[in-house]
Write a structure and sequence with these properties.
The complex is a heterodimer of chains A (399) and B (362).
Chain A (H helix, E strand, L loop, with lengths): L6 E10 L5 H9 L21 E2 L8 H4 L6 H17 L3 H4 L4 E6 L9 H8 L7 H8 L2 H9 L5 E4 L5 H15 L4 E8 L3 H9 L20 E2 L1 E8 L1 H6 L6 E10 L12 H14 L6 E5 L6 H14 L5 E2 L2 H4 L6 H15 L1 E2 L21 E2 L4 E7 L4 E9 L3
Parallel strand pairs in A: 2-6, 3-4, 3-5, 9-10, 9-13
Antiparallel strand pairs in A: 1-7, 1-8, 5-7, 8-14, 11-12, 13-14
Helix pairs in contact in A: 1-14, 3-7, 8-14
Chain B lengths: L4 E10 L2 E2 L1 H8 L8 E3 L5 E5 L20 H17 L8 E6 L5 H14 L6 H7 L3 H10 L5 E4 L5 H14 L5 E8 L3 H11 L22 E8 L9 E10 L12 E4 L5 H10 L6 E3 L1 H4 L6 H14 L29 E6 L4 E9 L1
Parallel strand pairs in B: 5-6, 5-7, 10-11, 10-12
Antiparallel strand pairs in B: 1-2, 1-8, 1-9, 3-4, 7-8, 9-13, 12-13
The chains are: A alpha/beta (399), B alpha/beta (362).
């Protein structure tokens, strides 16, 4: 494998239930605040009201809130992108003179989320195409590139819950290959009735606030939001005097090839993804300061992931941040990568929200309280429908 | 120009037929017998069915029981590409990159049916899990035992080009030794409804892909896969991918090569045809294959498969039908020697993006 040059993270934007931007989200997590609630943008006929982690309207910039010509997923992506560019010190106009790639992950942003249209069609009506046209306009990566007038590769990753992690790993490879000068990478997703019904049908949704890695966990809570990282080659970042917040040291991914919705019982693909990412980064497990785990709160995911983490990284603290954000699907890997960078900068991780009682079936426990961490390297991993597993290794700027 | 990847295997299933022989015949102007897909109300949808019956030669029938159409298409395309390459055992050093424009649209709508008919609490978990965009790639990996990286992409017309870009980077970085890369899309009634509402009836009894003044597109469906390896592993005579470039129309010059046969992604949509006129200089040698595949987002994967076949044969394909010449390109007749520089695949999107893939013979 070619030893890669790490991509520099020069800007981060994030919007999720935990906060309107990354500093706000980190503050609320440090204070162990979380606010799951019943869905407000849609109604359902389920006898139980499964809580979600929705993004309040006032977190979204007013001009984007009014852009009803785009899916909310795309508006979240645009909001996070704007934040990331401000953080990186890039004027959008300056980017138009460069080759700028956009690589974003999503689930809902590419799904035919057209229930009202379809009900009318099924009923023999002739529904207007506005719903379809909005869908066609809203492909997240294409829309961000178009809205900013960018010229470069565009890729929307639809790898279910690992999409955001994959998107960052792929964008880093674009920089190494010289495909673009700057890459905007991350993920975005919104809550919707179709996905809500789907996860409940699988019986992996908790009707209480989720409890990742806890003995009494019963499932996930859905969430929404977006995160975008500005990636640049270290040389380019240095040339413009940019502040480097972190480095993407490694990426690995592998498929369980086992089951559409259940992880491989021994975590085969996850182990392979960890091995690839560590080899790619040239990092030993003992060097890892902490792991931002996927930790959805579903019995299967947490059992398999917890066991693998305990076996491969027995001394390394880990946490799940989904107790603060819910499971944001295609955005999750990106939001968690953003949190991972912020934790590396702060030298501290928050408590793994929802965890109270150890599960003897997992053999490892997440950090029940906020704690300081030592070291400049951290991991963020994602497991997904379809048996996809993806791992990012992020290093502090001085790493 | 350096080589990024060698094309070792080709697997195609479309409205023209199944497999490399059918593709070769279609390129020579002799597509297999078309099986029309009836649209809503029993009228001809204009789409020709991509038949997955051949899948049972590769995969146990029981394991296909709950498999939806788009996954069947993807698995068949992958099996055909592996067979063409002579690879019988995928492993952890093989990756999958699959692009799709609309994903499992039929299954998504069936999932909606499940709760519209019977209430939210009766939503079908089986349909939901199969409605996710990466379900076809996941089913493919599970059935064939491909445990390397697995990626699904979706961005309409440039999806397949984007997949080629990632697949070649995986090989270049040593992440994998082989990549199955392709595109898949399926037709469904709702798509047919949207098509009719958007475009009305075609302006011609047949698709005229290079006619920039008329709307003549017909919907299509199918799956095309390529098995790529690093160029050093390629055999003499294999087609190689030299470059994949993506950008915005009107941005930096696209670098359209004048010394290659350009296969335009034009498929009978008037609006997109105008973008090709803007990008491709007069006098360039161009052709289009959209009249063979029909129109769907990931048809570029078929163009790539066709390019590999054409480069093996060294000859141009049958030229697309043209009623008149509203453009000033040169459309070579069938059987003309290909330019020594090779082939360029150009696809534009309704959103203003372009993708250019350059291929030549090893």
């Amino acid at each position: 494998m070619t030893p890669p040059t790490p991509a520099a993270v020069t800007g981060i934007g994030c919007i999720c239930a935990a906060g309107r931007d990354l500093p706000a989200a980190m503050s609320s997590m440090a204070a162990a605040r979380r606010s799951p609630h019943p869905p407000v943008r849609f109604s359902t006929g389920h006898p139980k009201r499964y809580p979600v982690f929705g993004v309040p309207d006032d977190f979204v910039p007013a001009d984007l809130l009014e852009r009803t010509d785009l899916l909310l997923t795309t508006r979240f992506a645009l909001a996070a992108t704007r934040q990331s560019l401000v953080d990186a010190g890039w004027e959008p106009a300056a980017l138009q003179r460069l080759r700028v790639g956009v690589c974003l992950g999503t689930t809902v942003g590419c799904a035919l989320n057209i229930e009202d249209f379809y009900r009318e069609y099924r009923g023999g009506g002739c529904p207007d195409l506005e719903t379809i046209e909005r869908f066609l306009r809203s492909n997240p990566a294409a829309a961000v590139s178009r809205e900013l007038g960018l010229d470069g590769p565009v890729q929307t990753v639809v790898n279910a819950c690992s999409s955001g992690t994959d998107a960052i790993g792929i964008a880093a490879s674009w920089l190494r290959a010289g495909v673009c000068d700057v890459a905007l990478a991350g993920g975005a997703d919104e809550l919707c009735r179709i996905i809500y019904n789907g996860f409940i049908s699988l019986m992996i949704t908790d009707d209480q606030p989720c409890r990742p890695f806890d003995r009494n966990r019963r499932g996930l809570n859905l969430g929404e939001g977006a995160a975008v990282l500005v990636l640049e080659s270290p040389a380019a970042a240095a040339a413009r005097g940019a502040r480097v917040r972190a480095r993407v040291l490694g990426y690995g991914s592998a498929c369980d090839a086992h089951h559409l919705t259940a992880p491989h019982p021994e975590g085969r693909g996850l182990r392979q993804a960890f091995a690839e990412a560590l080899a790619c980064a040239g990092v030993a497990p003992r060097e890892v300061a902490f792991i931002n785990a996927h930790g959805t709160g579903t019995p299967d995911n947490d059992r398999v992931e917890g066991r693998v983490l305990n076996q491969l990284f027995p001394e390394t603290p880990f946490l799940s941040t989904k107790g603060y954000t819910g499971h944001t699907l295609g955005a999750a890997g990106a939001i968690e990568a953003a949190f991972t960078v912020a934790c590396l900068e702060a030298g501290r991780i928050p408590a793994s929200a929802g965890f109270a009682e150890a599960d003897p079936d997992i053999h490892g426990t997440p950090s029940a309280i906020g704690r300081d961490i030592e070291g400049g390297v951290a991991l963020s991993d994602s497991l997904a429908f379809g048996g996809n597993n993806a791992v990012l290794i992020l290093g502090r700027a001085d790493r | 120009m350096s080589a990024l990847a060698a094309i070792r295997g080709i697997g195609v299933v479309g409205g023209f037929g199944t497999g490399v022989e059918a593709l070769r015949d279609a390129l020579a102007g002799n597509p297999g017998p078309a099986v029309p897909i009836p649209g809503a109300g029993g009228v001809d949808s204009g789409c020709r069915r991509a038949d997955t019956a051949a899948l049972e030669a590769f995969v146990d029938r029981r394991s296909l029981r709950r498999m939806d159409t788009i996954s069947r298409l993807a698995i068949l395309g992958a099996c055909l590409a592996l067979r063409d390459a002579g690879v019988d055992r995928p492993d952890g050093r093989m990756g999958v990159v699959l692009s799709t424009g609309y994903g499992p649209s039929g299954t998504t709508l069936a999932f909606l049916d499940s709760f519209i008919d019977s209430g939210d609490s009766c939503s079908s978990p089986t349909l939901f899990s199969s409605s996710v965009h990466n379900a076809p790639a996941a089913n493919l990996s599970t059935l064939l035992g491909v445990t390397g990286p697995n990626l699904s992409l979706s961005q309409f017309e440039v999806s397949a080009s984007s997949a080629l870009l990632t697949a070649t980077l995986w090989l270049a970085e040593g992440r994998v030794d082989r990549v199955l890369v392709g595109g898949v899309d399926e037709y469904c009634d709702v798509l047919g409804y949207c098509w009719k509402r958007s475009f009305g009836e075609p302006d011609s009894p047949r698709c005229l892909p290079l006619d920039t003044r008329r709307q003549t597109a017909r919907p299509g469906e199918g799956c095309a896969f390529l098995l790529l390896e690093r160029p050093s592993a390629g055999r003499g005579g294999d087609a190689i991918i030299e470059a994949v470039r993506m950008g915005r129309i009107g941005g930096a010059p696209a670098g359209i090569p004048a010394d290659r046969l350009l296969v335009l992604g034009a498929d009978g949509h008037r609006r997109c045809a105008g973008a090709y006129v803007k990008l491709v200089p007069a006098g360039c040698a161009v052709t289009s294959l959209g009249q063979i595949w029909g129109s769907f987002p990931t048809a570029t994967a078929f163009d790539a498969a066709a390019a590999a076949v054409l480069l093996r044969s060294g000859c141009t394909p049958a030229s697309p039908p043209e009623s008149d010449r509203p453009h000033s390109w040169r459309v070579p007749p069938a059987g003309e020697p290909l330019p020594s520089a090779g082939i360029g695949l150009l696809r534009v999107s309704a959103g203003g993006e372009y993708a250019l893939t350059l291929l030549s013979k090893a």
